[in-house]
Amino acid sequence: MKVVAFNGSPRKDGNTTILINHVFRELEKEGVETELVQLSGKKIHGCIACYKCFENKDQRCAVKDDVANECIEKMIKAEGIILGSPVYFTDVTAEMKALMDRAGFVSMANGGMYKNKVGATVVAVRRSGAIHTLDTMNHFFLAGQMIVVGRGIGVGRDKGEVEKDEEGLQAVKALGQRMAWLLKKLRG
Ligand SMILES: Cc1cc2nc3c(=O)[nH]c(=O)nc-3n(C[C@H](O)[C@H](O)[C@H](O)COP(=O)(O)O)c2cc1C
Which of 38, 85, 126, 137 to mutate to test the pocket of ligand 1 (most atoms within 8 A of CB)? Predict the structure, then answer.
């Protein structure tokens, strides 16, 4: 069983990565394989509305100049998907939005590629906008007929600051435990 996590932060190994790694630790304790994809430093851009995915129906984005298809392939292969983002102006980062638009549209064009997979969201926030950011990512799961298991929020600004947010860390650990439990119920 595998869970793949996508971190939309342009800051590599920052607070969102730290939070995702806490979720991963709990999943791994239960024997779930994990993989982290940090969008930082990778090329990904928004959907250009060519609608070719609806013509081709090949589970791929027709625009092949960035990492979108690599990410889509990882989503197809995993049983669980984590979307993680820092809050940027009360919402997800541009990188995360690009991934959701591309991967989500290709899924719709192919009848729901992630249907019944388990989804979880993770957010790093300095002060405000965490709930809106979670909502944005949850819509990707809900539109894709996935099963949303929960969410985790960690508070911090500078790299590593979320490690001081005890309550946030407890929340992401609990999320990992619940995700493992649900995956085993569904696929074990
Ligand atoms: C362009 C930009 C916009 C931000 N907007 C918000 C915001 O609206 N609300 C907030 O609480 N924090 C905001 N932040 C702070 C980040 O969410 C916070 O530093 C977070 O921990 C970064 O996570 P990372 O280390 O994974 O990138 C913003 C940071 C940047 C760089």
Answer: 126
| Residue ranges for the chain with pLDDT beneath 50 | none
Q: Strand 118-125: give its sheet, edge to edge.
A: 33-38, 2-7, 80-86, 118-125, 147-155
CA dist 169 and 176 (Å) reads 11
CATH number at residue 97: 3.40.50.360
Residue 49 backbone class (left: φ over 0; alpha: ψ -120 to 50; beta: rest): left
**Residue 5 CA, ligand 1 centroid: distance in Å:** 19
Q: Specify the DSSP class assigned to residue 91.
A: B
User: What is the residue whose two structure tokens read 């851009």?
Assistant: 45
pTM above 0.70, yes or no: yes
Residues 41/12, Cβ–Cβ less than 8 Å = yes
86-140 tens-digit pLDDT: 999 999 999 999 999 999 999 999 999 999 999 999 999 999 999 999 999 999 9
Could you give the number of structural domains in the chain?
A: 1
Alpha carbon of 88 to ligand 1 centroid (Å): 5
Enclosing domain of residue 175: 2-187
CA 113–ligand 1 middle distance (angstroms):
31
Q: What is the largest CA-CA distance in the chain?
A: 49
